[in-house]
Design a protein that fits this description.
528 residues, mainly alpha, 4-stranded mixed beta sheet, 4 strands, elongated
Length: 528
């Protein structure tokens, strides 16, 4: 819900519909507008003969790309994955799937189909070239020979380029699927990234040496895509993009929610008809515990964009926070109906079902969410781990815990203050989870904070205070630890200790929303 790598990727996919084959959209990428210019620059036709050759070559090139992408589409349909569109662009094409198949062997089959057809085309064009008839007029012999030789060479070059082990071209996806077969998805991301980076550097050097600016532009696209393979690089990329293009999103990602609200408010004043600005401000309000303001913004966004998936999801989140689980499930199910391939909708349904103790149904929802989510979302594994644990499958629970930790330790171990209800009734799971982490990482203040939050959510205030204190010994300038300990002291009636913790927050943080919350808590203590 901020200016991010995902939005850049969407912009790079800008295209126009040019046809439809049995419900499959055929689209032309905006980069093909430069195709005629590039073709002219390469051939510089001076007569009709050379002009026809350039035209036929451009048509043959586009047809080759189309057949390559059609092979992906046919392979996807064979493993029962819906194909939304085929997009043809200057350096190739891409096939848009409704979702990635869960099994890596299916992904391997889909991604290998395109290069295989490209290789066959290259061989076929060479055969046609060598079997050329010399009974044609001399002018046509020239066009015939040059055309099929060029198409053969182009398809072989496309084949070599496509099988390069660099994400997100076919070779990188093939590599990812192969590695995932043996090592799992998280490690496949890391291995694919490690291999892709030197290949990308090589392509950049090649582009600089040959002054190939189209290749260099494509390298930018590859670099952005590679960043999505790792949680930390994705976060830094998102921070950079938001800082440059949407400053409110930058402050939101930094946890400075009051400043984020200020920027989103300015955006709303400039563009009051844009629903996303209200959603972004609503998300910021939730983090500052201003639920009423968040609800008002989401309701406004619903009036502007009643069929927006993000709006429905955030409306469901607010109902979930308010423990109105029936309403939350209704909103999440509406989002699922709007986009059956959106993983976050199933994640929301799973969270509701887990807290309602509908564990088998929750497990089905989390399985769908994890199979559909292409972005890193460690909480999906954490939630499924909690469900496995309650169902008695401790080994599977531990496997999901490890998967979440592998993605991001911080995001796997601590939750937002408004989401601590997720721990209610799951203290046995929390003690198992955080205990395992602390055995391996005794210096993880995230683990002490997470377990302290779980104790506080289950009214075990003495244990919560002990864990917050251990976390503060490691990281004494983290305001949330003082909040957690101070609230635990307050629940026990130890007002002086609570007051000291809330005052300490005022001394160590510059974030306005944290200062305001501390002041409100101190004022409430004075009234007690």
């Amino acid at each position: 819900m901020n200016f991010s790598v995902v939005e850049i990727m969407r912009w790079l996919k800008l295209s126009w519909k040019i046809g439809n084959v049995r419900g499959l959209e055929i689209r032309l990428h905006f980069s093909m507008l430069f195709g005629i210019i590039v073709t002219y620059y390469i051939f510089r036709p001076t007569d009709m003969q050379r002009g026809l050759l350039a035209l036929f070559l451009l048509i043959g090139f586009v047809l080759s790309i189309f057949l390559h992408e059609l092979a992906h589409a046919l392979a996807a349909s064979l493993v029962r994955v819906e194909v939304k569109s085929i997009v043809i662009w200057l350096l190739g094409g891409f096939t848009t799937l409704s979702h990635e198949p869960e099994k890596p062997v299916h992904r391997l089959f889909i991604y290998a189909a395109g290069p295989f057809i490209t290789l066959l085309l290259g061989i076929l064009f060479f055969v046609v070239y060598y079997s050329m008839s010399y009974n044609l007029p001399s002018s046509w012999i020239y066009i015939y020979s040059q055309l099929f030789l060029a198409l053969a060479v182009i398809n072989i070059i496309l084949f070599v380029f496509n099988i390069l082990p660099v994400y997100p071209v076919d070779g990188g996806n093939i590599l990812h699927a192969l590695v995932e077969l043996f090592f799992g998805r998280s490690r496949a991301n890391l291995i694919t990234m490690v291999i892709s980076i030197p290949v990308l550097i090589g392509l950049v050097l090649l582009g600089l040496r040959t002054h190939d600016y189209i290749l260099l532009f494509f390298c930018v696209f590859i670099a952005i895509a590679i960043s999505t393979l790792n949680w930390h690089t994705l976060r830094w990329m998102n921070l950079g993009l938001n800082y440059l293009f949407r400053r409110g999103g930058y402050y939101y990602l930094q946890g400075d929610y009051d400043r984020a609200i200020q920027y989103f408010t300015r955006n709303i004043e400039r563009k009051p008809e844009e629903a996303n600005n209200y959603l972004l401000r609503a998300a910021s309000y939730l983090h500052t515990l201003q639920n009423e303001n968040a609800l008002a913004d989401v309701e406004h966004a619903l009036r502007i964009a009643p069929h927006s998936e993000l709006t429905l999801l955030l409306r469901g989140d607010i109902s979930f926070i308010e423990k109105d689980f029936d309403s939350a499930l209704e909103w999440y199910e509406k989002a699922c109906q709007l986009n059956p391939n959106a993983g976050l909708s199933y994640y929301g349904c799973g969270c509701v079902m887990r807290l309602r103790n509908e564990l088998p149904s929750a497990m089905d929802q989390f399985n769908k969410a994890i199979s559909l989510l292409r972005i890193f979302f460690p909480l999906s594994y954490v939630e499924r781990s909690m469900t496995y644990f309650k169902l008695g499958n401790v080994d599977a629970a531990h496997k999901d815990q490890d998967a979440a930790l592998y993605i991001s330790e911080r995001d796997a171990l601590i939750r937002a203050e408004f989401n601590l209800q997720a721990y209610e009734g799951y203290l046995d799971w929390a003690e198992d989870y955080y205990g395992r982490v602390l055995l391996r990482r005794p210096g993880s203040w995230y683990a002490y904070q997470g377990r302290g939050d779980a104790y506080r959510a289950n009214n075990e205030y003495d244990k919560a205070i002990a864990d917050y204190t251990k976390a503060l010994d490691i990281h004494p300038r983290e305001p949330r630890l003082y909040f957690g300990r101070g609230k635990s002291y307050r629940a026990k009636g130890e007002i002086d200790c609570a007051t000291a913790d809330f005052r300490q927050i005022l001394a160590i943080t510059h974030k306005v929303h944290l200062q305001r919350q501390a002041e409100e808590l101190l004022a409430s203590l004075d009234r007690e």
